[in-house]
């Protein structure tokens, strides 16, 4: 497929995924004082008790214009599959004041990670209050693109460097992670200029990047001992297949097996598009870990 054809296909897939109207949550709850520190909850549509929980981390290159709203149809899709869903919002990058017109930068250090850690720590109590029918003992984390990086990171906090403010003393009680086209290997993502240099913007200039990467790069935070699967479209031009393959290779070198489900002729957005076959595959991967 030519580059122009690939871009045209990507545009069509993106339009399809983002064409679904937002779905309002059944409840929302704050996990902090900032307006972005909120979790939306979707109850399982079949009304079952003891439903496993899927925690959703949205993507958007950690940039402010992209929030959890575009993931609400995906969250509703999972709720219709019998899951209880917790869709996490977090602080993202905004325009640099000195460079107006330059566009939003990627992420906020350390606030983005502060928020994901705080959300995950608050989740059991919030689930008990907002979704009592959910089984907080069966939690799977998923995330798309930049959200895939955050999902992997949430499962790796116990292997963060000593002294990290986000480090856990033991593995988090998760059934597993399903990372969707994740920005999972920072070295490869930088080499490929994924999302217009988002990783470099997030971690900062060279000396900051080197100091921060060991606290943030999923390909370094291995092994986790938590069941992990990556779902990747083979025609993804936003986060190419090479990024996922580099993460899976890094896991293997660390002595851990990470599943890699490649979806032929699927790009970046079908993974979260309820109208696509790829989204059904994602639901099946979540089911295998959750039940």
| Main pleated sheet | 8 strands, mixed
User: Beta fraction of the residues?
Assistant: 15-25%
Number of beta-strand segments: 8
Strand order of the largest sheet: 1-2-4-3-5-6-7-8
Q: CATH superfamily assignment?
A: Alpha/Beta hydrolase fold, catalytic domain
Kindly provide the name of the CATH class. Alpha Beta
How widely separated are the two ends?
Answer: 39 Å
Q: Strand pairing plus helix content: what structural class?
A: alpha/beta
Find the CATH topology.
Rossmann fold
The amount of helix comes to 25-40%
Low-confidence stretches: none
Global geometry: globular
Instruction: Indicate the radius of gyration in whole angstroms.
Output: 18 Å
Q: Quickly give the CATH architecture.
A: 3-Layer(aba) Sandwich
What does this structure look like?
With 291 residues, the chain is an alpha/beta fold. The protein has one domain (3-290): Rossmann fold. The protein is built from 9 helices and 8 strands. It has helices spanning 3-17, 72-80, 111-130, 146-154, 186-191, 198-203, 206-212, 241-253, 277-290, and strands at residues 27-30, 38-42, 51-57, 84-88, 134-144, 176-180, 228-233, 259-263. It has an 8-stranded mixed sheet, sandwiched between helices. It is globular. The model has no long low-confidence stretch (mean pLDDT 94).
Secondary-structure blueprint:
Layout: H1 3-17, E1 27-30, E2 38-42, E3 51-57, H2 72-80, E4 84-88, H3 111-130, E5 134-144, H4 146-154, E6 176-180, H5 186-191, H6 198-203, H7 206-212, E7 228-233, H8 241-253, E8 259-263, H9 277-290
Parallel strand pairs: 3-4, 3-5, 5-6, 6-7, 7-8
Antiparallel strand pairs: 1-2, 2-4
